[in-house]
Design a protein that fits this description.
The protein has 225 residues and is of the alpha/beta class. It has eight helices and twelve strands. The chain has two domains: 119 residues, Response regulator (Rossmann fold, 3-Layer(aba) Sandwich), CATH 3.40.50; 96 residues, Winged helix-like DNA-binding domain superfamily/Winged helix DNA-binding domain (Arc Repressor Mutant, subunit A, Orthogonal Bundle), CATH 1.10.10.
Length: 225
C-alpha cells in the first residue's frame, strides 16, 4: 500500500480527499499545518500532497525543507493559481502543481504518474565522474575545488542524463521527464542548463567531454565506464 502525506487545513477537503484516496488503496496521513507536516514527514512516504496556504509554515517553505533531505514526489494543490505561483512552487522543488478547484479524477491520475515516475527513476544518492562529485541528497556538488548547491531542476536533469549515460536524449523527452505537461521552458532553456553543467564540471567548457549537444537531436552525458 502506497503512503501519502496530505498537508491541508481545509477540513471538508481533507475528508473528501482522504476518503477517495483510501478507496484507491492509498494509506493517508494528514497534517493540518506546515510544522506538523515537517514533523511527520519521513522517507517512507511515496508522495506528499501539499497546500500552499497553510498555517505556521507555508507550503513553499515546507516543500523547500523536504527537498533538502528527500526526492519524494511533491504535488501542490492550491487556490493560488497564477503563473508566478506555479513557477514558484516548481522552483521550490515540487514535481507538479494543481490549481483548486480541481477535478478529482485528474488529481488521482497525477498521483499515479508521480508515484510511478519515482519508481522508474529510483534515487541515486551520489555519483562521481572525473574529479567531480554530485550528492543528490544534499543538492551539493564538488567540482573544480569548489562546493556548489544546485537547483532541483538541475539535479533532476543531471539524474536523467546520468541514468542514460552515453545515450542521446531528445529535447522532447527531457521536457516530458523534467518539466512534465506544463512546458514552461523551451529547448533554449535546456541549452542554458547544459552550458551551466559545462561551467561546473568540464575541464575546458568550450571543448566539452562530458555534456554534449547534438544539433537538432538532443543531449548526451558521455563517460567511459
Amino acid at each position: 500500500m502506497k503512503r501519502i502525506l496530505l498537508v491541508e487545513d481545509e477540513e471538508s477537503l481533507v475528508n473528501v480527499l482522504t476518503l477517495n484516496l483510501e478507496m484507491e488503496n492509498y494509506h493517508v496521513d494528514v497534517a493540518l499545518n506546515g510544522a506538523e507536516a515537517l514533523e511527520k514527514f519521513n522517507s517512507n512516504y511515496d508522495l506528499v500532497i501539499l497546500d500552499v496556504m497553510i498555517p505556521e509554515v507555508n507550503g513553499f517553505d515546507v516543500c523547500s525543507e523536504i527537498r533538502k533531505h528527500s526526492q519524494t514526489p511533491i504535488l501542490f494543490i492550491s487556490a493560488k493559481g497564477t503563473s508566478l505561483d506555479r513557477i514558484t512552487g516548481l522552483k521550490m522543488g515540487a514535481d507538479d502543481y494543481l490549481v483548486k478547484p480541481f477535478n478529482l479524477e485528474e488529481l488521482l491520475l497525477r498521483i499515479v504518474i508521480l508515484i510511478n515516475r519515482a519508481k522508474v527513476n529510483p534515487e541515486i544518492s551520489d555519483f562521481r565522474f572525473g574529479d567531480n562529485l554530485i550528492n543528490f541528497k544534499t543538492y551539493e556538488v564538488e567540482a573544480k575545488g569548489k562546493t556548489l548547491t544546485l537547483s532541483k531542476r538541475e539535479l533532476a536533469l543531471l539524474r536523467l542524463l546520468i541514468s542514460k549515460k552515453n545515450e542521446v536524449i531528445s529535447r522532447d523527452e527531457i521536457l516530458d521527464e523534467i518539466w512534465g505537461k506544463d512546458k514552461f521552458p523551451t529547448s533554449r532553456t535546456i541549452d542554458n542548463y547544459i552550458l551551466n553543467f559545462r561551467k561546473y564540471f568540464e575541464p575546458n567548457p568550450s571543448n566539452p567531454i562530458y555534456f554534449r549537444s547534438l544539433r537538432g537531436v538532443g543531449y548526451k552525458f558521455e563517460i567511459k565506464d
